Amino acid sequence: MPQIKMLADKVRLVSEATDKFKTGCISISMALPMDERMAANSLLVYLLKRSCKAYPEMSLLSGKLDELYGAILGAAVSKNGESQVLTLSITCLADKFALEGESIQLEAAQLLADIIFKPNVRNSSFGADALATEKRLLIQRIEEELNDKRTYAFNKCISCMCKNEAFGKDKYGTVEEIENVKMADVYEAWKNMLSTAVFQITVVGAADADKVASAFEKNFEKIERKPAEIETVFVQKSRRFNRYEEKFPVNQGKLVMGFRAGMSHRKDNIFAVTVMNDIFGMGTYSKLFTNIREKMSLAYYCWSRLIASKGIVLVESGIDTDKEKKVSAEVLSQLSDLRNGKTDPEVLESSKRALRERHAFTTPEGILGWYSAQVLCDEIMTPEDMVSGIEKVTMDDVCAAAKKLSVDTVFMLSAQEEAENEV
From CA 53, how far away is CA 73, in angstroms rounded? Predict the structure, then answer.
């Protein structure tokens, strides 16, 4: 069980003590509402990663990371439910391998704290050149996702399905919003983040959790906290079916079907829903893979993904455009069979075995990801808790969970005639 400590209002430290890895990890996750600040928030986290007051140049910060035995500093933007999550993380050598007995993780924690609380800001500015560079790189990230048609179709289905919900927004904000961000917006985003974000510091390794906590706690004491109330809208049942289509010069069509999972919150019936989704379309033993892809050869790939933080399931498939109706009908047919218990009983055990292996994390990054994803959860669930709950799931539970799935949105990325090489 991880050590959990509250450092300030909605600021939590979660520490998993272990000495079985050669490296240790620390991340700080900052959850914010998905509002008009999203573009500025996205730019902010990448600007923070560039430097801090103690190391005001990228070269100086890189030198410090080298001193920490080649520590790796990362930044990311993601969606967690209907929140935008900014993450800064450091992966470093485990303390027991330090040549002079120093605590590398404690130094890494202090560096993270400096990056967040003492950024390289002069006259409320992160630097015009730095902002221009990060705008260009962020727009490039968005364009790369647009050029990956599988990712594009997946995100487009979500934006259509959740067009009246915050979850339908792009995690970075739009290109236009990014282009229009001014330096004052980024500086205000930084101050707003410190005051209102829901924070979780996650530590995996052998570092002293209390000492890591102190590196952040003393900084939060200087901040007047007014944490945002972040709630996710869970639509338990589809209100009506919608279909959307776009045409692109691709040889392989992309079909994405969005389902409401019948969940009222992110942990609602989570064990049965997880197993149900795995049997439906996650594993090589799943109904979608074994039937639609293998037996019927209707799709180049076909699998399902559960987004528990929003209570939706998405089925993705790569198909010949003229097979859309046949594939859609077969996906619903396989779901009907699952609802009615028309599944080999051995598949349940195969699913549980695969899910056990999936939650037996073999890297510190895996453990870190598991806990940091719970930044908005009131109670922390361990991987062991998850496995224990999965083990108790029966086929009746799976069928009941499948019966709650309701198709909401279909997005079809169709091939134009005379398509050339797939983009």
Answer: 16
Residue with token string 């695969």: 354
CB 202 within 8 A of CB 372: yes
pLDDT, residue 417, reads 67
Predicted TM-score (pTM) of this structure: 0.94
Asked whether residue 152 falls in the same domain as residue 196, the answer is yes
90 and 187 assigned to the same domain = yes
Q: How far apart are CA 239 and CA 232, in angstroms?
A: 18
Q: Is residue 234 part of a domain?
A: no
Amino acid in the structure at residue 202:
T
Q: What is the pLDDT of residue 182?
A: 98
pLDDT band at residue 393 using 50, 70 and 90 as cut-offs: very high
The torsion region of residue 170 among left (phi > 0), alpha (psi -120 to 50) and beta comes to beta
* Token representation of residue 339: 């609802």
CB hemisphere CA count around 80 (13 angstroms): 23
Q: Is residue 289 part of a domain?
A: yes
Q: Which of 65, 66, 116, 114 is nearest to 87 (CA)?
A: 116
Alpha-carbon distance 413 to 411, whole Å?
7
Domain range for residue 190? 3-220
- What would the DSSP string read from start to end of 16-85? EE--SSSEEEEEEEEEEESSTTHHHHHHHHHHHHH--SSS-SHHHHHHHHHHTTS-EEEEEEEE-SSEEE
